[in-house]
Amino acid sequence: MSALTGATAARAQAVPGTVTVLYAGSLVTPMEGPVKAALQKQGIDFQGEPGGSKALAHLIAAGIRSPDVFISVDPALVVQLGSLVASATTFAGTSLGVAWTPHSRYAALFDRAADGGTPLEDALETPGLRIGRTDPLLDPKGQYTIEGVTMWLGVDGARQLLGPDENPSQIFPEQDLLARVDTGQADVGFFYRTEAVARGYRFVPLPGKAALTDRITYTLAIMKGAAHPRQAKAFSDFILSGPGRAILERAGITYRSP
User: Fold this and answer.
1) For FRET with 122, which of 39, 116, 232, 252 sits at 20 to 30 Å CA-CA?
2) Counting beta carbons within 10 angstroms of the beta carbon of residue 36, is it exposed (0 to 12), middle (13 to 18) or buried (19 or more)?
3) pTM of the entire structure?
4) Burial 62-93 (b: 16+ CB within 10 A, else e)
5) What's the rounded Cα separation, in Å, for the pair 7 and 52?
């Protein structure tokens, strides 16, 4: 263990208690699994609430939620919270693409697409394919999906594949989309690489700049007036430079250089 990691762990252990965290739903698998378990060992009770970053930011701005920490997948949402934020760090990123489970009825087709044997756009145009994505009004990933597909296929191609922006046959809440892909109710979905790695899905990024790797970034904000300020700082250290970093890297997040 490095000196930095050891110091971070010591600080976390020195402030047992509760930390409340609203976080981008794309992080639900590592957050509710290994992150929560590791914090419990250090005496911190992690109380997390996942969701679309836009929806969570709206809840904070309206005073409906008052978390200690907010992790958004869109830095602009943290900026918009203004004086409600004590400090913020944009610390990592990921890419946008298509993911599916090994049990999907179209797994073989998309495996070929991932290996370059079938054009991804041809696979996505398969008749009867059930595509899932998130709401662009509530979740940055939903908006990134529209932007990325439009960059890749053009306006007409994106409309042919996705239908209207608010297409009810494709749009699901973030956590519901994972469950639908897991159970086969959706054959494939538009996800971040983070989600695919953490969930054990196969993943192929959208081609070139359409993967939006330069734009999709995670920002951790400690909120002003946090009910548990010391635990919020310990959680931030844990995620940014302590054991939480390795957990999230294993889950597919790419950390930025300090």
Assistant:
1) 252
2) middle
3) 0.84
4) eeebebbbbbbbbbebbebbeebbeebbebbb
5) 33
For the domain made up of 3-93+216-255, give the CATH fold: D-Maltodextrin-Binding Protein; domain 2 (3.40.190)
pLDDT tens digits, one per residue of 111-148: 999 999 999 999 999 999 999 999 999 899 999 999 99
Question: Where do runs of H (alpha helix) occur along the chain?
Answer: 3-14, 28-30, 36-41, 53-61, 75-80, 107-114, 120-124, 140-162, 174-183, 193-199, 229-240, 243-250
Yes or no: say if 150 and 156 are a contact pair by the CB < 8 Å rule: no
Residue ranges of the domains in the chain?
A: 3-93+216-255, 96-211
Residue 86 in 3-state DSSP? strand
- What's the chain's length in residues? 258
State pLDDT tens for residues 9-38: 444 345 789 999 999 999 999 999 999 999
**Nearest residue to 124 via CA among 113, 133, 115:** 113
With a CB cutoff of 8 Å and minimum separation 6, the contacts of 109 are 118, 123, 126
Q: Which fold has domain 96-211?
A: D-Maltodextrin-Binding Protein; domain 2 (3.40.190)
